[in-house]
Amino acid sequence: MDINEARNYIGKEATIKGWVYNSRSSGKILFILLRDGTGFMQCVMAKNEVEDETFARAKALTQETSVIARGTIREDKRSPNGCELTLKEIEIIQLTRDYPITPKDHGVGFLMENRHLWLRSKRQWAILRIRHQIERAFRDFFDNRGFTLVDAPILTPNACEGSTTLFQTDYFGEPAFLSQSGQLYMEAAAMALGKVYCFGPTFRAEKSKTRRHLTEFWMLEPEIAYITFEENMKLQEDMITYVIRDVLKNRKDELDIIERDTSLLEKVEPPFPKIYYKEALEILKKHGKAVEWGDDFGSEEETILADTFNKPVFVHHFPIGAKAFYMKPDPEEPNTVLAADLLAPEGYGEIIGGSQRIDDYDLLLEKIRENNLSEEDYRWYLDLRKYGSVPHGGFGIGIERTVAWIAKLPHVRETISFPRLLGKIYP
Ligand code: 4AD
Ligand code: MG
User: Fold this and answer.
1) What is the Cα–Cα distance from 366 to 329, expressed in whole angstroms?
2) Which atom of ligand 1 is nearest to the CA of 180?
3) Suppose 394 and one of 30, 141, 185, 223 were both cysteines; which one would form an S-S bond, judging by CB atoms 3.0 to 4.6 Å apart?
4) Strand 195-203 relative to strand 148-149: parallel, antiparallel, unpaired?
5) 354 and 398 share a domain?
6) For position 51, which CATH number holds?
7) Whose atoms come closest to the Cα of 356: which ligand?
8) Does residue 408 fall inside a structural domain?
9) Are residues 282 and 369 in the same domain?
């Protein structure tokens, strides 16, 4: 029996295969909290109901000892599962000694060194389940709307998001780079399949040590042929709203475990506020920030902007040159591009970057040259503007930042099983 199915076994015999999370005894009664991966279950053993030897064995169980427990499921309205296990027999698979992570408080450095074990703690368990639900909701959202999932390559010959954060590797004597984004490939795929998305790991050699930067992170990137700039933002609003509602509905217990106050999340619904970059500059200046036309915003600036609204907010129409080379200038305001970032409230900042892409061959070539990118490397990308070019756009959403926001975590390192951070690759 899986613990998360226990409610269906009330009054019946059951076997739980798992691990001891903690245990305590009050003389004649033992309380053992077991976990099996699907949940946590209070197990109770009374001395006068079992053999002395069974009771002694159960009493000596240590944290993280692997066990197979047998007994009867009893209704218990006070327990989180609505039931508990009356223990009759417990078989030890391996008796654990000196488990390094004890119920006392440990420093984050120590926990990160023991990330392979830390994953077993209730909080980390809950976070990983929330992450899974978020990923599932994202995929459902796009699959339900007729998008095709297209997997983008990881080894790439060129940069997508600027050459300063590339991880270089050797590809049979030639330089190759770990992908920073699947976008350029999704543009090719969108011309073949119309509405596509990729979902995979992306890499940035970020020198910044912040609570929102990883060097390896997962990004979901939709790309849509013929979409307009406004439709693109609408798609993002619908997606965020769908995912939040899905997680609030399906991961309520896990959100409770991590003590997430969900009142602001419950209020997330379209339309989201939308402000021009130039309006964002004004807000930031009022907060005493020395920002000038052309600057890209950092974490602090994003936090100020997002906190001004208490809702996800789009900042759009960035100055030409502040962001990536492929963004399309707005014909109505030619010193700006049709790009929008979505900033999450509660201090989380940018979770989405999106834009209309340049669809004109000559302009794209000019931008490639201006940015000192190799024309040869981008020949295939330019081809897309030579053969049936159409207006198109898309966006990329970072999974870890989204999880950090929805679960309200202080740092992205807890949002992924084995985080890769500046100077950190163990375990
Ligand atoms: O704004 P970015 O750089 O946009 C792109 O890569 C586009 N090519 C996406 C597209 O249009 N298809 O990154 C998109 C998102 C960010 O908003 C953020 O959520 C996440 O990816 N991200 C990171 N997350 C964690 N650590 C990092 N170092 C990140 N860099 C970007
Ligand atoms: Mg960005």
Assistant:
1) 13
2) 6
3) 223
4) parallel
5) yes
6) 2.40.50.140
7) 1
8) yes
9) yes
CA 53/CA 339 separation, integer angstroms: 70
- 246-277: per-residue pLDDT in tens? 999 999 999 999 999 999 999 999 999 999 99
Q: Indicate which ligand has the atom closest to the C-alpha of 327.
A: 1
Q: Measured from the CB, is residue 213 less than 6 Å from ligand 1? A: yes
Is the domain of 61 the same as that of 181?
Answer: no
Task: Please tell me if the CB atom of residue 301 comes closer than 6 angstroms to any atom of ligand 1.
Answer: no
CA angle 168, 421, 237 (to 5 degrees): 95
* Same domain, yes or no: 81 and 119: no
Angle between helices 122-144 and 399-407 (to 10 degrees): 120
**Beta partners for residue 73, in sequence order:** 85
Q: Does the beta carbon of 401 lie inside 6 Å of ligand 1? A: yes
Q: Give the whole-angstrom CA distance, residue 262 versus residue 250.
A: 13
User: Would the CB of 350 count as within 6 Å of ligand 1?
Assistant: yes
Q: Which domain holds residue 304?
A: 115-414
Structural domain count of the chain: 2
State whether 139 and 88 are in the same domain. no
Residues, Cβ < 5 Å to ion ligand 2: 353
Question: Which structure tokens are listed for 264?
Answer: 């602001």
- Fill in the amino acid letter for 170: D
Residue-wise pLDDT tens digits, 149-165? 999 999 999 888 888 89
Closest CA to 225 of 114, 147, 307, 130: 147
